[in-house]
Fold:
Amino acid sequence: MRFTLKFAAACAALACTGGAFAQKGETVKIAMIEGLSGPLGNVGQNQLKNWQYIIQNLSATDNPAGVKFEIVPMDSKGSPPEAINLLKAAMDQGIRYIAQGNGSNVGVPLADAVAKQNERNPGKEIVYLNYSAVDPVMTNEKCTYWHFRFDADTSMKMAALSSFMQDQPGTQKIYLFNQNYSHGQQVAKFFKEGIARNKPSAKVVGEDYIPLGQVKDFSPYVAKIKAAGADSLVTGNWGQDFTLLIKAMNDAGLKLPIYAYYAGVSGTPTALAQGRDLEVYQIAYNHSNYDGVLGNLANGFKAKFKEDFYTFSIYNVLVAMSNAVAKAKSTDPVKVAAALEGLKFKGFNGDSEMRKADHQLQQGLWISKWQKVDAKNKYSVEDTGFTFAPVKYLEPYIASTPTSCQMKRPG
Structure:
């Protein structure tokens, strides 16, 4: 009888262990629906390598579920209709997780398409992992249960940036220069609100919007910035739309402080270095000079690809996903989505939480400054001899902004 009880207890323990690690060794496929070609394709290609490299180098601590991640690249060319077609293709291939980030013009309709797909096809649900589309509407009036954002939204970044700018001397005449889609429009909107609150003496002396990835000659815009008498420039531009702007400013000899979201994205740091002593501040969830896990990943990535690793949110996506799979004891997207809600985990900035109310990751933010490398800040961005050195860190509770999301949950 005693042997029977011991045997039953042992079996129960093994069953529990098996349940806890039922997902171990399973493959979790993630379709990366992104612009991998075209004028902004260099950014998408860099991020694809980010995904692949981090997956190959996840430690056991980073991956408590013990699953195997596989990234499946799908080129949307930055087109919303193409992205939605690729969503259908991913579903047809049995892929239950998608990732996208470059462009809220794609992200907003993609989130809506995922929600409709899941409502119409119970049992074939898909989870959307957003690593860099930052339009606040995605976690406010257009929030959906199946969308999770791992970047900080524009309102969070701009609240931090406008607060920092209030103490910057000489920042009184500001020019806004942004891409003409939801992200660029939101950058301008939230900047105006933030600067009015934090530095009412400052004025916007000019404002321009450009079509995404289409402008080749920025010299007319630089002439307008000069003519406006601006003493500072604020921009949410990324990719070639930032790189070519900096080149035109260099050619015109225009040097004024720049406050930016994406100064570290492929190609732009090289243009900044050609301007030599440009004063540039970046608001982001990261900077260029981490040590520890992220420092090792950045250095290893550069050694392998001769490129910079700058989309750190991809690391947080994979760590959060593995923690959620371990919590759910399953790779099923319905169970994993439920586990992601309210999930607390150690991200690259420390304690992070996927807020249940709107699926916006709560994390710290950094203000960093473009400067020459030194003994403390050694990472040479794009081998320019310059780096983004941390200036100020904002804890998650400071970087957080409220949400108006009215989440409709399944069931």
In short: Residues 1-20 have pLDDT under 50 and may be disordered.
